[in-house]
Write a structure and sequence with these properties.
Number of domains: 1
Structural class: mainly alpha
Number of strands: 0
Number of helices: 3
Strand content: under 5%
Distance between the termini: 18 Å
Largest sheet: none
Order of helices and strands: HHH
Helix content: 55-70%
Shape: globular
Radius of gyration: 10 Å
């Protein structure tokens, strides 16, 4: 996901956050947002 974000011009801070989420699967965009905000 971080690689796609990078190719779309995402800022470095966002790329770092995406990479720090670790592996696993996400059920959709809201799941990603929740994880980025510290939720499970």
């Amino acid at each position: 996901m971080a690689q796609t974000a990078e190719s779309n011009g995402a800022p470095q801070g966002m790329l770092d956050q995406l990479r720090n989420l670790g592996g696993g699967q996400f059920s959709g965009p809201q799941d990603v947002i929740s994880r980025l905000q510290g939720g499970e």
